[in-house]
Amino acid sequence: MSTLDRLRGRSPQKSPPKSPTSSPLVRPPDPTITSTLPFLRTIYSTPGTHNTASFLRTVFTEYLRLQHDITHSSPERDDRDDDDDDGRDRITLQKMKDMIALTKMIRGIPGHEKVKFHVVEYDLQNDTVTKFWMVLIPLYRLSDDTTSSQRPTLDLGNLHLLNPTSSSTGPGLAADLLPTPEYERMLLVLVSHIVRILGSDCCPVVMRPVLTDRLRGYLEPLTRMGKWDSIEFPAAVEGQSCRPRFRLLGLSDREVRRRGWVREGEFGWSHVQEQQQQIVQTDEKKGSEKS
User: Fold this and answer.
1) Dihedral-angle region of residue 91 (phi above 0 means left; psi in -120 to 50 means alpha; beta otherwise)
2) How, if at all, do strands 154-155 and 203-207 pair?
């Protein structure tokens, strides 16, 4: 605009405002963040350092940090190593999304009655993926009344397989589509994630009868019934293969130390057999002395 136009009081023509969606810096809200923010006060005020609330606090804080790093990273990167790092960060972000959603489901946060979860089995020797299942985890309800105060119960007996595999056509019930060894192998990996979330908390679980020794051996010590806090998993009875069985998972740090275990290993546990056997002998000795 010329100086004469300014003296005559003519204002410059302003360009119309740009749409917010046209800016590369503006992204749609993250559903994981928006669905968690309303419950932050409850999450952060829950006491304890080894329970579902503390796990959610830790993972959600790390999720915010990683999401911020990815969002503010430079979009123009030619270095291949940087692209690989970005891909790994996004895979880590997806894992955190799954764990956050499953934790909110276990705690009974509204809107998480069903959760999509990526179950990934790794070969720890060469750090490669050997199996991958994408499942939908539903809640089990004792009645049709959705307003009842029933504690959230994971329905692991009716997992829906969302991705077809080499041995299934999917989608559908994982127990029907997968061979029993593969199905219970997938359950073992999934339950290991649940135990990692729980810490010293417990969670009601509905399962089909366990058939493989490996899954039975992993689950029995983590239940809260019977001798040694465990209950035997019976084989399927004809006509009752879909009968639900409740399990409570979770062990306190004190109980873990009493058993001589540490929270590590392929699926979160490393058993020290000598100490475990010593505890059994001590319990048997005390029982004989009382009798």
Assistant:
1) alpha
2) parallel
Q: Which CA distances in Å does 262 have to 189, 251, 253, 256, 266?
A: 18, 11, 9, 7, 12
Give the type of residue at 55.
F
Residue 190: CB atoms within 10 A of its CB come to 20
Q: Which CA distances in Å does 38 have to 42, 62, 280?
A: 9, 18, 47
Provide DSSP, 37-106.
GGGHHHHHHS--SSSHHHHHHHHHHHHHHHHHHHHTS-S----HHHHHHHHHHHHHHHHHHHHHHHHHHH
Report DSSP state, residue 139. Answer: B
In single-letter form, the type of residue at position 51 comes to N
Using one digit for the tens of pLDDT, what is the confidence trace for 131-167? 889 999 998 876 666 565 567 889 998 999 998 665 5
For residue 40, is it left (φ>0), alpha (ψ between -120 and 50) or beta?
alpha
Q: What letter would DSSP give residue 20?
A: G
DSSP state of 3: H
Alpha helix segments (H runs only) across 125-179: 174-177
> What strands, in cross-sheet order, belong to the sheet with 128-138?
114-123, 128-138, 160-161, 172-173
Contacts of 51 (CB under 8 A, 6+ apart): 198, 199, 200, 201
For the chain, the average pLDDT equals 75
119 and 189 Cβ atoms separated by less than 8 Å:
yes
Contacts 24+ apart (CB under 8 A), 58-62: 59/96, 59/99, 59/100, 59/103, 60/36, 60/100, 62/96
Quote the pTM value.
Answer: 0.72
Tokens at 91, concatenated? 């895979």
